[in-house]
Amino acid sequence: PYYGTRPREGEKPGLWLVGDEGVYIMSNGKLAEGSRALVVYAGQCHPRGDGDWWDYKRRHFGADDGIEFIEAERLIPLFGRNMSATHLNV
User: Fold this and answer.
1) pTM (2 d.p.)
2) Where do the domains of the chain lie?
3) Average pLDDT over the chain, rounded to whole?
């Protein structure tokens, strides 16, 4: 079971681009009970490692918190093009 932006609405596999305390991506897949989601922070926007993360987040994501859903069907062709890629540019 996968979720779009709300449970039981638009259930599709994908990633969430999250602007909160930093900017990160995470899977939108349903987690097993008791497990925690893996998050991958944007370069220069990790609150524990980058001193100016707030300015970077505000400049590139906006001052408000939010979530953007990215469908897996849009990402899979990108992954197949370059197997040595190390970054996702959004």
Assistant:
1) 0.76
2) 14-81
3) 83
